[in-house]
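Hi everyone, sorry if this is the wrong subforum. Our group has a chain we'd like a structural model of before ordering constructs, and none of us has done structure prediction before. Sequence below.
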Amino acid sequence: MTTLTTATAPAPASRAHLARWLLRLHRPALYVWSGLVLALTVLLLLLHGPLTDAAADAWRHYDACTEAGPCRYDQKAILRYKDWYNYATLAVAAVPLLAAGWAGGAFGKELESGTARLAWTQSSTPVRWLAVRLAVPAAAVAAGTALLVWLHHLAWAAGHDRIDSAKEWYDVWTFYANGPTLVALVLCGLAAGALTGLLSRRALPGLGLGLLLTGALWAVVQLLMPRLWPWRTRTGQALFDLPHTTWTWRSGTLAHDVPYGDYHPASHQWPLQLTTTALLLAVAALLTLGCFLALRRLTGRTTA
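Answer:
Right subforum, don't worry. Here is the predicted structure as tokens:
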């Protein structure tokens, strides 16, 4: 790869100045992110309140139905809650991919257009440029995602014991949207997108590769996650007495056709969340290190 040459800036700009300049440069993305967080906040508050209340009331009437007479309940309320819960959950869970796509495109575009090299020669060293471009978006997406995760957990908890069709804690999208694992995954997506943008030095390849790398990472984490905390095992009839909140990971038969099952009870939800979060934060740190190594190879500069 051809090494880019840069001149030392006589008076590098402060990190605060670089941060303000970065916010102005990516103002449209900031507006879109703020609008998305606001829209999802409103939807999750509705799910926490009137949508859940209406669906719970409909389920209460349905459960009280008997064969002796007609069954009257608000089916539309149940379906409305189900649809909007799924929309909100998928939208919250998609944030890591949005972060990866934006970072890949933004870093690739700055290198492709020459904006990065102009900044290196006039206002900042490459390392400071990269540090600010990672730190500012990371703070913005982490704060917004943490808010959405908290609101989603409130909305899910409000309907969990009141709505018969509510998702269990181990539902794939519900699990990620309900805890800090998603915040760590967003940081991984941001770092992965930045890395692919730095390596490709073009906007579209950086965007696409960032999405692919983040998706592959998510798939690997999903395979590892159930194994990050010891599961429990039951055999025989006791296996069929587990509560519905239990996540049966795998099952089969032993000798003499005795059934067995490895499972995670509901009490394992937070240990799994925290261990997966720790793993993802370590991966995010490695990806960030990879960004600085890619920058060093790109510029041949090591000064901060």
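For your construct planning: The radius of gyration is 24 Å. Residues 15-227+273-299 form one domain.
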